[in-house]
Amino acid sequence: MGLHTLAKILFYRELDFVNMMQYDLHGSWETETGLAGALHMHPSDPNPDYSIADTVKTWLESGCEADKLVVGR
Q: What is the pLDDT of residues 10-25, one digit of tens each?
């Protein structure tokens, strides 16, 4: 286990919860309008790199406990 991974796990242990606000996945920085926070990526999305499901997956894979994640919109 690398130092970076250990630091993240120790950080997550100190948190009671993590609020994941998903309303800024698209915005004025893009050339096309997209859903504010799509649950899943869609191929027709002008920027399909972001979704609520992928964000949750990233947090879980980095060591955060599922019962600490709170998804809001």
A: 777 788 888 877 776 7
Q: Which residue has the tokens 């964000």?
A: 55
By CB atoms closer than 10 A (0-12, 13-18, 19+), residue 66 is exposed
Helical spans, DSSP H, in 29-70? 52-61
Alpha-carbon span 20 to 35, nearest angstrom: 16
* Its pTM surpasses 0.85: no
CB-based contacts of 61-67 (< 8 A; 24+ apart in sequence):
62/8, 63/5, 63/8, 63/9, 63/12, 64/8, 64/12, 64/15, 64/18, 65/12
Question: How many whole angstroms separate alpha carbon 30 and alpha carbon 3?
Answer: 35
Cα–Cα distance, 43 to 51 (Å, whole number): 12
